[in-house]
Batch of 3 targets.
Target 1
Amino acid sequence: MVIAKKTLSLSEGWKYRESNGTVLHDWQDAQSLPTSVHLDLLANHAIPDPFQAKNEELVKWIATRTWIYEKHFTIFPQEPTNKSRKLVLVFEGLDTYTTVKLDGKAILETDNMFLSHRVDITEHLVNTKAVDAMHTLQITFHNAEQKAAEKMEKHSEYSWFSFHFGNKRLAVRKAQYHFVRGSAMDPVLILGKMIDDIQGWDWGPILIDCGPWKPIYLETYEARVADLSIRTQLDLDHQQAVLRVSVEVEGKASFARIDVEIDGTRVESRIITLDSQKTTTAIRIRNPKLWWPWTLGDQNLYTVRTTLLSHENCSAKDELDSLEKKFGIRKIDLVRQPLQGQEGASFFFRVNGVPIFAAGSCWVPIDSFTSRATPEKYHSWIKLAKDTNQVMIRIWGGGIYEHDAFFDACDELGILVWHDFMFACGIYPAYPSFEESVISEVRQNVSRLRHHPSIAVWCGNNEDYAIAHLAQIHAGKAEYDPTEMDPERIRESGFPARLFYEIRLPEICKELIPDIPYWPGSPFGGSFCNDTTVGDIHQWHVWHLDKFPYQDYPKLSGRMITEFGLQSAPHWKTVKQYFPADQPFCLDKKQDCATDEYMVWHNKGKDGPENIANYAKNNIPFDGQSLRGYIYCSQLVQAEGLSTAFRGWRRLWQGPGREYCAGALVWQLNDCWPVTSWSIADHELRPKLAYWTVKRENQPITAGIARVLNNDSLTLETWACNMTMQQLCVIYEIQAWHVKTGQRIWAQKVFSPTTLDPNRSTELGKVECSFKLGEEKQFEWNNLMFSIHLSSASDSSVITRYVNFHEPLKEVPFSSQEEHIKAQLVEQETGPVIELTASVPMKGVYLDFEGEDKVDWDDNGVDLVPGETIKLGFTGLSDGKDRKLRIYWLGETGWQSKIIGF
Ligand code: BMA
């Protein structure tokens, strides 16, 4: 008789306690798996919410204890024992150092959060002869920091070096962002200064969690599909694709059926003979439906299913096991080739033969407690990226190999993924047992994720080469020869983990995913890792290193910028959520936000509050004395900075052979808790002002103006980006407006159609500003706002517009007062809109329905041109009366706002 694989979930009925403490020595009910000790303590009201106020401090003790989880279960009581069937306990993920016991006997020791484990317990059960009896599964979670310290001591021959974010984490294969950045015991060096304060990652709290962060279950089977992988090869003309479907089997099965379908239509069904542990069959697909990033086409997803059969012509009752995966047919290249007229080489992604400008952002885990993330939340974040016209997300190496739900959302929504391996900001060791663990982790995670068409590149690490570079300069450490390729010599060098980034990981990727690009690090390439002419760069000369003005972004370009950004505070509703409930929360009270204890606690950036204030003061009349002002000002400056960068860098995407800049990924998309950080939307997914400028600057068609001032004369450089695949014919109008009076001073209409070639920027030309204000005096250029409107040559409808003010904005004599702006709610066929008009140029006009929490705007944070009506659509407004809309904008002496009731 054939017995099909069965799975018994072990998610429910767990209890937990502290191992030998006094407080929580009695068993408490745990939540269903996946879970973690912080989440269980929170659910049991044993701790306050670590995200609120300064509660992070109050829950620090949790990480210093040992925790035990336990569950009783019976095994398939009705099944007879049978030696040809296996019983296997599967642990998809244990965080991190554990001892697992079954009925008191140790069956597993773990030390890597990123690994899954399968433990064959057949023997144990046969020997205990207790198949239908109650069993006890117990997992002890040891103190990760202590274990790390032990490892460091045992391997004191290694450097264990990091400039920031602490060293102990380097010994632990656990999400690095959980950890401490420095402590009196473990001082760290930041840009030449020893720092011994205790902080988390520079956007996260220190919450060193532990627990069963992924499911646990029991499998019983005669045979199972150990893996199902699909390699797709697409012909150049896209007329045909060959799928190589490989089935790996554990146990005895003679045949497997392979079914492939798309949109409910079967494309192929065949039975293959299984002659070894891994059997591969090639399937030809004519006229394949391709998977495209959303900017280029549809996200066609095929399903492949394999079913293990005991006989060739068997019925459903003879099926042993089956497994299904969704995949896409697409070809991804990372193109590095010479450029016309510039040094170095290109660095751009080509999908199905089409080069893309990869606009996007970097991803950190969406919660400090990784098991709390739901598929819905992943979907919402990825949708948020798409809604802001992003096409690539970079999973940063200090978090986790993301949950399947993340990739499902990217596959469905057409977002490309740059995936770092999990190493960040440090000189990691490479002793043999560490190496072995890393290799298993990489093999498992690449195998788990390789069917996802959204993954465009795997990358060795985050900033480890940069750390090595800085370590050499500032600390005389991490000496290494970049040409050395002998594994043993690399292991003994000052930068041992090159063994992973340059040898082991590329080897594994070549074997498991030969068609997907591999890149050693982010950043990497060229004469040193941040070479602006080769590979990718992290652009931190703005904000971190030299604190250059954000206006410099366009000239601080690289072939692809995989990190850059500025911090800002979250939406006030999110701030309110983390302020202590027992204290009055007031947005307009006078208080110094740069020193307020809760605002400071919820900004983990080194010099964060100081940097926010300085960037704001250098650019706008800054108000750090009320929460309302602080939030608006910090968000406006971040929004301006990011839009300057995207506008400048997209301009450098100039077509074949001239891909001078091929992408920009903002640091960062999201947050893991409510915090002031570099994210463009806060932890509650509430958009910051930057959300709107990132969206605007990455529309398929945009226009730009750059002011070039030479002594007293001003030249305007103008350009347009057409990121669509169609050639466009446009006409355009440039106008100059007086910011004080709203008077139009000058206009230039270009009515002869200009061609914008597809998938590149086009220079429209230069305009010398020779006009004068009145007879006597040349303009002060800061009095002028320029606008450019790009219209279709065929029907003159406006395609896009851009508004350009003098910078820094604090030198603009705005005269925008309350009475200059008008807003009215208009019901249109497509839904309600707020129509905005202004009689003078206005900057950063931001709308917020204060009493509502479900309003979603389709645009916001706009600049206004006199006489023009801008319509901002929205959904989700409640039916109630008394709905108050607050309108913010930037005035001459500071931010201003007014309330309109509807
Ligand atoms: C980069 C990242 C992160 C960090 C961010 C902001 O260096 O790789 O490690 O959080 O900058 O400082």
Note: The first strand starts at residue 6 and ends at 9.
Target 2
Amino acid sequence: MKYALVTGGSRGLGRAVCLKLSQMGIPVIINYQSNKEAAEQVRDIILANGGDAVLMQFNVADQSQVNAALQAWEGEHPDDYIAYLVNNAGIRKDNVMFMMPDSDWHSVMDVTVNGFFYVTKYLLPKMMMRKHGGRIVNMTSLSGLKGMPGQTNYSAAKAALIGATKALAQEAAARNVTVNAVAPGFIETDMTKDLPQDELKKLVPMKRFGKPEEVADLVGFLCSDQASYITGEVISINGGLY
Ligand code: NAP
């Protein structure tokens, strides 16, 4: 069986991605950090719809937790492998740089960049060894493409993820592993609920925030057979806001 692992699958974009991949017939591993109840809700929806889902708690920024959780899963699933990895877990700690606490710089880099590295490093060799390869989708952001004031930590982390996507795509291509990034603009989730939506909507040519399901459809496409020759791409999904 080929499983999908979605980091930060308990809420927001990750939740929508878990539901989408399950609709595509893929068994899903729902990673979360602390919100077990939300993760259980995602699992229960998938199970109620006849899909297959399990929870996996770990902090992506803690390599020993990542390795221990994935090793335990492999021990229980000797005939299965994780063929789809969506590196979605992320946090925002916005501030202008001259006032930014060091810890807010490090935590955003840790979750986004080191989290990507720890989870992907563990799973990549196993994907590359398999005949059917694998799919890696990294959740970056418009902020990583254009840079956003008040987000030097977040923009730097998301830009790093774009560089890593392009480099890793070339390393893994010959082994049939595609590596792409998705760059959303403003999407309606917990992460954006404290933002002044009415003001920000005016900046978006489509005059609205995106929905998690719209991003999940794009991730689903990148994980599908139809996207087998797409790799190293960064695909924006932002209602025309560049
Ligand atoms: P969200 O609603 O705040 O959800 C964040 C998810 O990440 C939760 O499932 C959370 O788990 C998980 N998470 C956070 N830190 C983690 C860690 N250290 N280890 C494991 N899981 C962790 O955020 P979202 O809006 O869905 O964002 C998802 C991704 O899209 C992020 O990478 C974000 O940067 C990116 N993005 C979002 C937008 C947007 O407008 N929303 C735009 C561009 C990019 P718990 O439930 O356990 O806390």
Note: The mean pLDDT is 97.
Target 3
Amino acid sequence: MILVTGGAGFIGGNFVLNWLSDANAEGIINLDKLTYAGNLATLASLKHDSRHQFICGDIGDGDLVLSLLKKHRPRAIINFAAESHVDRSIHGPSEFIQTNIVGTFNLLDCAREYWSSLQEEQKEQFRFHHVSTDEVYGSLSSSDPAFKETNPYEPNSPYSASKAASDHLVRAWFHTYGLPVVTTNCSNNYGPYHFPEKLIPLVILNAINGKSLPIYGDGQQIRDWLYVGDHCSAIREVLARGRLGETYNIGGWNEKANIDVVKTICNILDELKPRADKKSYADQITFVKDRPGHDRRYAIDASKIENELGWRPAETFETGIRKTVEWYLNNSEWVEGVTTGSYRDWLDKQYRN
Ligand code: NAD
Ligand code: DAU
């Protein structure tokens, strides 16, 4: 057994599906609070798979977490659970502090109690894998080298500050208590089952629904895009062979300006689902007020994971973004399930002006 938290979200859900696609895989206990970002429809194909047990609950609930650990005796915990959207953290940081910091603390402390009770061999095999972000390193200028694992932490948003705090707690539980941890800091993911508050799925859906495509500021901010399937394979490598107490940066070697990402999506849609008036979806691009404290550039130097573990992403941005657009065009049922009233309320709050 492994315990996955946040496994009904975008990356956690992809990871659960990816893991269980192997017929010989260990089972998964999936603990997820089912916030607005959690969606059981992502896991619908596992309905009759007894290797997957879903538990609706909070990583901050100590009694629940400890009882799950004692009952299922997992050999690893992979912590995906988080509040993950920067814009929401600007409107309301409180949940970010609660889940990302207090929740991770609780998970670590329960893991420590459980791990301490294990026999020596199981103790050695146990892993606590914390999934984190490149945003903890702050913002780069256009000439700065890409983030290495040794870069100082300089988080700029309530979201990234809360993730930075959680990374520090994970590090402390390794150094102080010897809990066998690994941390991965990943760049922007994209792919199937991505909640459409984030740039790529938002743009795909707004485009085909005839809405404007909102670009913050001048659209020249740069992100390093990684296909979610590649993130899953990287996590598997680090979980299996990563050195204890180490952090590994994961990235796609795919730096793109936001405006270019949006134009690429428009070009693919022009080809796959042309507008009735034959004009380009790019006509729907609208420049809107910038995000407060908007980080200018993220870029990951993923050479450590490549040199130590031989991992490199399989997808280029061109192959991954085409698959992603096709997935959204072919999965309208999933999309309808997540674009509910509360989703529309969020769009209204964020983009009203
Ligand atoms: P997401 O918002 O899509 O999913 C988060 C999941 O966590 C949801 O299913 C939600 O219900 C669950 N959750 C939230 N609070 C919880 C709590 N207190 N207890 C239990 N479950 C809870 O996020 P994501 O994009 O899948 O990101 C997963 C992880 O990867 C996060 O830790 C995020 O910081 C990190 N990350 C994300 C990206 C990205 O581009 N999306 C990149 C790097 C790192
Ligand atoms: O770098 C990793 C991070 O990537 C993760 O830790 C976060 O959980 C994840 O949400 C993501 O953060 P970003 O803020 O980079 O992702 P988002 O999709 O929100 O925005 C990507 C870029 O696009 C960013 O520069 C802001 C811009 N943007 C976003 C939205 C939603 C727009 O221009 N318009 C928009 O409407």
Note: Residues 5-6, 8-12, 31-35, 37-38, 58-60, 80-84, 99, 103, 131, 133, 163, 186, 188-189, 195 surround nicotinamide-adenine-dinucleotide (ligand 1) (CB under 6 Å).
